[in-house]
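The instructor's notes for this session suggest beginning with a concrete chain rather than abstract definitions. Hand out the sequence below and ask the class to guess, before any prediction is shown, which regions might be ordered.
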Amino acid sequence: MGIPVNVVGLNKFVTEIPDGNIILIEGKIDPVKTFFVQHIGCTSIKNGRDVIYITSRVINELKKELLVYDSDTKSFNIVEERSSRHWKDYVKDNSLLIIDSFSYLMLDKSLYEFRDNLEDLRQATKDKNAIVLLTVEEGMLDEKAEITAKYIADGIVIFKKKEASKGISRYVIIPKWKNNMAFNDNIYYDFDGISMKVDMRSRVV
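After discussion, reveal the predicted structure:
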C-alpha cells in the first residue's frame, strides 16, 4: 500500500504515491516543493513508515522548519549525504527516502554518473518496495540530465506559477504517473508557506 496524498483536491487526481516508485517533484525556486515532500513525510511517519531525509541544507535548520508542520522531528532520519553513490544504501524495506534538493546535490556529476546513480537508486527502490521523492529546481540541471531524470522517474509532479492580474497563479501538472498515466488538468492551488489549498473550481489555461 502506498502513501496517501492528504491534500484535499489533489487527491482527486492522485490518491496515493505508489510503492516501488521514484517521483520527481519539480518547480521553480519555491518552498512549496519542500513543503509537499515534508507533508508526505509526515503522513508516512503516521502510517508507520521509516522516513530518511537527505538534505542539502543544515540539519538543525531543517528540524526547525519541520516543527512548523507539527511534525515529530525525531521520527525523521535526517542526514547530510552528498555522495550520491551511497543514496541507494539508505533505501530500506517499505521506507520513504526524500532527497531535497536532488538537482542541487547532483550539480557536479557527469551525465554518466548521474544516470548510473539514478538507475541504482531506482533498482533499490523496486527491490525494497520503497518510495523515493526527488525535488528538482527548474533550470538547475543541464537539459540532458533533466531529460534523463524524467525518463527514469516513474512519476513527475510539477509545481508551476505565473503572474496574473491579481498576483501569482499557482498550479500543479502531472505529466507522468504509474502505468503510463498522465493527467490533463491544471490543478490550481494557494500556498501560504504552511499549507496548500487546492481550488477545484479553477483551472489555469
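Then share the key points. The chain has a mean pLDDT of 89. The radius of gyration is 16 Å.
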